[in-house]
Input
Amino acid sequence: MLYSLLSRCAALTIGLLFALSVSTAAAQQTRLPDIGTAGGAVMSIDRELAIGDMYMRQIRASAPVVGDPVLNAYLHDVGTRLVRNTSDVNFPFKFFWVNQDQINAFAFFGGHIGMNTGLIAETRNESEFASVLAHEIAHVSQRHIVRNMDAMERSGPAAIATMLGSILLGIVNPELGMAAISASMAGMQQRSINYTRLFEQEADRIGIDILAQSGFDPMGAPDFFGRLAEKYRYASKPPEMLLTHPLSESRIADTRIRAERLKQNMEVRRNELSYWLAKYRVLTRHIGRYNETAARNDMQSSNPDIATAAQYGLAILLLDSDQPQQAAEALAPLLEKAPYNTFYLDVQTDILLAQQRFDEALTMLEQAYQRMPNERTVTINFANAAMQAGQLDLAIKLLRDFLIRESTNTVAMSLLVDAYRRRGDTSNMHEARAELLALHGQFDQAINSLHNAHAQSSTTLEQRRLQARIEQLMAMQRQLEKLG
Output
């Protein structure tokens, strides 16, 4: 089943967060002070994109990045909705999940935003969840990391080198990385510290504006952050998010005043079924906080979205405990009501494959694919079902077409490697494996795989193409070494 493949993609635990804030205070003024330009003197947009890409490759290699296509599609949809209402967008945003139970979110170079699965489990509605995304989007759109580097440059070039080294260390060891960042920040001039305070204030206010303009309840921000501050007020070890985004009473009060003013002039959208389905999928399949008794209790909720999501969660629990028939019975009413809901299609595919009902799975997914040809959940499930049914040519075509649009999708690339292996196409298998390895920053192994593909290629043109790709990966490897 696809879920088994996704489980194998998880690696070591990481909690990468950048120290964009070291303050527990937030200014009360309505207008923000001028705190400078977007850091172009320190790092160009192109340079930031390149560094972000390299960091993302290392994160894939060391963190339990979630490959779940349904959750990734949901996160992308919410993030994109927020970005549409964001000014100063300099590059495409890339959203991803890290499978950790801790409450955490983080942003880094080049528009990359990571969300821990534990964070959505802690939120109580979609506006709370979106408020965290909007805050991180504001950090990225305002280029706070780069602007902080600009401030540090005035304290001496060594400050930037220390900060970048600490970030790289954080990729390998989050606790040591955060300690190094804190130490480097502590040694800087007060002006640099004041910059980080202003960055948090700016991200709060811009984030709430983005939230409201996107149709979410702006009260989601003060409600969520206020509840976190109260819950962990006396905790000896608060969540990482509170260490890097300290929540003072004045900051929460300022956020609440702004949210209340914005809410007076807007109509909040209330369709939250996808949020609840995503949350219950996380609870059941990724962080294991849920059980069958809880699901059956929640199915009696007066909130119809919660009741539906609980029934969906029950189907997942039954399927993952090797009860596909009972899972099918739990899912059937939901699927009948919304046959093209991708949350339901994904679980139904796994049910049918578990029962070896390959023809039914292919028929269902082909119909969905014709209706939604570019949807990632449908495409990946269709390709996986085709491969399980022995239709390798169909699987390979679907995956190759999909990877043209989403070249960094590691689940699709893993499936393509497996499809080539099953077909006995070792040359293409080595090439696809090289691309998968490169996505995880493992350039030595990727280059070796390309050499294997080169040795088995049958035409001069093919050899030249592979040699060119080898040289590209070698250049990327040198770039990564410079960053380190």
Q: What stands out?
A: Residues 3-39, 168-195 have pLDDT under 50 and may be disordered.
